[in-house]
Amino acid sequence: MNATLVGLALVVGAPALKEGPKEVATVVGEWAVVESLRGGQPDGVMQTSPIDKIVITADRWIVVRKGQEGPGSEIAINPKADPPQLDFNVGQGATGIRGIYKLDGDILKICYDMNGSRPTKVESPPNTETRLMTLKRIKK
């Protein structure tokens, strides 16, 4: 009986098992273009120059058309900003495009202004140069 109480005391007093590190949602991956708007209207990019997929790495944005990867753009991703930021062409001397994004499960919305200012909301208001791309993660 004493051994049972001692064993029970050890189990109750033992630290809880820790779960593995929680997986952090990331924009890194392969994405299909669902929609591309500019000024609140479809921008026609998928009709004039269809995109097979967009590949996002930790530091590159690569557009794949007709099975061929383009040279891509250097990017900087800041998931801790509010809203999270994704900036294009951040290399030496490059004029950057400053964007924001919203990641909701397997849907990624990226918003940037063609005039260079950073949007404050993930939207493409009418009569603006703000582009909003909606992407869906390609599962492997």
List the helices and strands and how they pair.
Blueprint: H1 2-13, E1 29-38, E2 41-42, H2 45-48, E3 53-56, E4 60-65, E5 68-69, E6 73-78, E7 85-88, E8 97-104, E9 107-113, E10 130-137
Antiparallel strand pairs: 1-2, 1-3, 1-10, 3-4, 4-5, 4-6, 6-7, 7-8, 8-9, 9-10
Question: How are helices and strands ordered from N to C?
Answer: HEEHEEEEEEEE
Question: Which CATH architecture would you pick?
Answer: Beta Barrel
What is the total domain count? 1
**Arithmetic mean of pLDDT:** 84
Span between N and C termini?
A: 55 Å
Q: Which structural class fits the helix and strand makeup?
A: mainly beta
- Backbone CA Rg: 22 Å
Q: What share of the residues does DSSP label as strand, in percent?
A: 35-45%
Low-confidence stretches: 4-12
How is this structure best described in words?
This protein has 140 residues and is mainly β. It has a single domain (25-137), classed as Lipocalin (Beta Barrel). It has two helices and ten strands, in the order αββαββββββββ. It has helices at 2-13, 45-48; strands at residues 29-38, 41-42, 53-56, 60-65, 68-69, 73-78, 85-88, 97-104, 107-113, 130-137. A hairpin with a 2-residue loop joins β4 and β5 (68-69). 15% of the residues are buried.
